[in-house]
């Protein structure tokens, strides 16, 4: 397995307390506000799935569905999903999922947020490169989004 094709890693130092960053990640409604998905009235609970429509302009027809893996308050949240599932004519359910992990570390100047998405090498060869490219760019933008979100609230 080549780490450069199987996993995306991003991190950002957020000038906010860990409890605030945790709330932005673990409260499904708050997560949806910065991530761009309508998760109103939903919760992230280990072993359960959560879904909602994307709110990013041009993608509102897409439904994001995540299967929550682990929730360790103020430290770790992880879920599985079908990356770059943007063609509504394709049934992605038979495909393997990738694992998205959020880890929080308290540091002197705020909170270090690390996001890792892994499992791209298991995706069908025809989708692998594009899914990786789209999500690599997407996670870069999401780091900016959460930084703005926790800084503004």
Number of helix segments? 4
Overall 3D geometry?
globular
Rg, Å, rounded: 15 Å
What's the CATH topology name? Alpha-D-Glucose-1,6-Bisphosphate, Chain A, domain 4
- The overall number of domains is 1
Q: What is the residue-averaged pLDDT?
A: 94
Question: What keywords describe this structure?
Answer:
153 residues; single chain; Vanillate O-demethylase oxidoreductase VanB; ASHA1/2-like_C; 31% strand; alpha+beta; methyltransferase; six-stranded antiparallel sheet
Protein described:
There is one protein chain. This protein is α+β, with helices and mostly antiparallel strands. It has a single domain (3-152), classed as START domain (Alpha-D-Glucose-1,6-Bisphosphate, Chain A, domain 4, 2-Layer Sandwich). The protein is built from four helices and six strands; from the N terminus they run H-E-H-H-E-E-E-E-E-H. It has helices at residues 3-6, 18-26, 28-35, 125-152, and strands at residues 7-14, 49-53, 63-72, 76-81, 98-107, 110-118. A six-stranded antiparallel beta sheet has the order 1-6-5-4-3-2. The radius of gyration is 15 Å and the shape is globular. It starts with a helix and ends with a helix. The mean pLDDT is 94.
In short:
This protein is of the alpha+beta class and 153 residues long. It contains 4 helices and 6 strands.
